[in-house]
């Protein structure tokens, strides 16, 4: 099956739309642009396909009602704007989808909801039940209570995580740009990249950094990162403009398509690799790195040379080789303060209560293979 056919035939699709596609600084929420997107998604829902919408725009939608001009510089104002704007945003969506006889539900997530295993499973069950009931979930980061997570571009990565949580068949990342170019089309000639089948296809592409102007800070770099996360998790992706949403969902040749780059991982593997936030680092010697990579072994104290960070037992940590490259992520069996006396020692030399793996192979996922070059 071609990639275009995969997208057109996707039974369950996650669609992410950014603030710049829904809002403007002078007037806040642009109801006409929102309604145009809803018309597209309402038609898709009417075809019997399931849609999960990941929508930015809460903070931007709250600026005009509060009389705030420009993006808030302090956390309290951003949270206040999110509190006002989230209500307006979802109510506008509910009214617009109501004209298509589509019931919507609000799902607000913070980083903790995807980085803590129990919360991750709760989010999965909630989304599944909403979809089973015929509801179209509208997902957003819970900016009202988020702290360092308040970044306008984060919903790209959130959408990639939601695509796996919801077991989606496709992911559509929408913005005000019609795809990934090999350069900045605003600064000179640039060619649209049609299909990405491997990260190496982007090796000569300069994506820049997330932009921080207007009502959004997301850039193409965050979209490509999100697309690669989803593609490696077995979900095909299209990156294109909001104006081309209908064409993209119909499988037409628009935007940049990211082909599946690996089999869909088990939920636990995906969670460990992409959704966890490491609380610390364990530095390994070369022998431990080889044991992890080549034999799929558990991590024992003898192979650890140093400990960094403050973490508790069962927290996620990064396992780092002598060259500074992250080898794996895993759930550590000990608190950070317990580990220094164990480093470099054989398991048989330790007291019985410490004769277990530091990170068990079943609680670990490799995140980078050695270079083939």
Automatic annotation (TrEMBL):
Pathway: Amino-acid biosynthesis; L-proline biosynthesis; L-glutamate 5-semialdehyde from L-glutamate: step 1/2. InterPro entries: AceGlu_kinase-like_sf, Asp/Glu/Uridylate_kinase, G5K_ProB, Glu/AcGlu_kinase, Glu_5kinase, Glu_5kinase/COase_Synthase, Glutamate_5-kinase_CS, PUA. It is an enzyme of class 2 (transferase). It is found in: Cytoplasm. Pfam families: AA_kinase, PUA. Residues 280-359 form the PUA domain. One of its GO terms (cellular component) is cytosol. Coiled coil: none annotated. It comes from the Bacteria. Catalyzes the transfer of a phosphate group to glutamate to form L-glutamate 5-phosphate. Belongs to the glutamate 5-kinase family. This is Glutamate 5-kinase. It comes from Geodermatophilus obscurus (strain ATCC 25078 / DSM 43160 / JCM 3152 / CCUG 61914 / KCC A-0152 / KCTC 9177 / NBRC 13315 / NRRL B-3577 / G-20).
